[in-house]
Amino acid sequence: MLPELLQTTNLFHLLYRIDIDLAEQQRKGGCPFCGGALHYSTYQRKPRGGPALPDDLYRRLSFCCANEKCRRRTLPASTLFMDRRVYFRAVILIVTTLSQTKPQKYSKNILSRMFGADRKTINRWLKYFQDIFPRSKLWKAIRGRLSSTVPNHHQPGSLVEYFLLHNQSLENAIINCLRLLATGLQTV
Ligand SMILES: [Zn+2]
Q1: How many angstroms does the Cα of residue 133 sit away from the middle of ligand 1?
Q2: Please, which pLDDT band fits residue 104 given cuts at 50, 70 and 90?
Q3: What is the pLDDT at residue 186?
Q4: b/e burial code for range 54-91 (CB count within 10 A of at least 16 → b)
Q5: Measured in angstroms, how far is the CA atom of residue 86 from the centroid of ligand 1?
Q6: Which positions ≥6 away from 28 have C-beta within 8 Å?
Q7: pLDDT at residue 188 above 80?
Q8: Ligand 1 center to residue 67 CA distance, Å?
Q9: Following DSSP, what letter does each residue of 42-58 receive, concatenated?
Q10: CB 74 within 8 Å of CB 32
Q11: Where are the beta strands (DSSP E) in 41-102?
Q12: Which of 3-12, 87-96, 109-118, 148-157 has the lowest average pLDDT?
C-alpha cells in the first residue's frame, strides 16, 4: 500500500543512492555557468513526512563552483527533495495521488492527520499538479517518453498508476516515477 511505503526506511535509502548518482553525473559535467570544477557544498534540511532517518539522508546535495570569478551554486536533480518544499518529494507524490485516485478513503482531513501536512499545503500541491505541472517543460519531456494513454490531467495520479502497471513492485514504481519527475528521463 502506498501510505505504508512512506514508513519504510529502505525507500529513502534507495532514493538517496540515486541522488548521489545524479549529483556525481552533474559534478563530472562541471559548472553549468563557466565550466569550472564543482565542489560539494551540501546543506542540512529537515524534510517532513518520512520515517526517522540517518542525518545523511536529510542533506541536500549541492555544489559550489571552484572558479573564484564564478562561485555559483548548482543544485543537482533530486528524487528526495522537491525544490524548497518542506516535505519529501515521495510524500508529496503519494499524498496527491491518494487524494486524486481515492478521495473517498483519503479525504484531505485524513491525509492531513496521516502525514502532518495541513489542508492548505495539500491543496497547494494539488494546484501545482493541476495548473503548473501540465504546462511545464518537464511534463513535455516526460510526455514524450510515455505511452500516449497517460493523460495530461489527473496528475500525478495518472503517472503513478502508469508506473504501478509497468513495475513489479510498489517500491520500484514509486522510485522510477520519482526519478522521472526529478530528471525527465525514464528508466522503467
Ligand atoms: Zn562556475
Answers
A1: 29
A2: very high
A3: 65
A4: eeebbbbbbbbbebeeeeeebebbbbbbbeebebbbbb
A5: 28
A6: none
A7: no
A8: 6
A9: -EE---BSS----GGGG
A10: yes
A11: 43-44, 59-60, 63-65, 73-74
A12: 148-157
Question: Cell for 2?
Answer: 502506498
What residues contact residue 45 under an 8 Å CB cut-off, 6+ apart?
58, 59, 60, 81
State the distance from the centre of ligand 1 to the C-alpha of 42, rounded, in angstroms: 17
Q: How far is the CA of 39 from the centre of ligand 1 (A)?
A: 10
Using an 8 Å Cβ cutoff, are 158 and 133 in contact? Answer: no
Residues listed for the chain: 188
Q: Which pLDDT score is estimated for 65?
A: 97
Q: How far is the CA of 35 from the centre of ligand 1 (A)?
A: 6
Digit-coded pLDDT (tens) for 50-73: 999 999 999 999 999 999 999 999
Task: Name the residue type at position 50.
Answer: G
This prediction's pTM: 0.93
CA of 177 to the centre of ligand 1 (A): 31
Nearest to 60 by CA among 32, 95, 85: 85
H helix or E strand, kind and range, residue 39 = strand 38-40
The DSSP letter of residue 133 is G
pLDDT tens sequence across 129-171: 999 999 999 998 888 888 778 888 889 999 999 999 999 999 9
Is pLDDT above 80 for 187? no
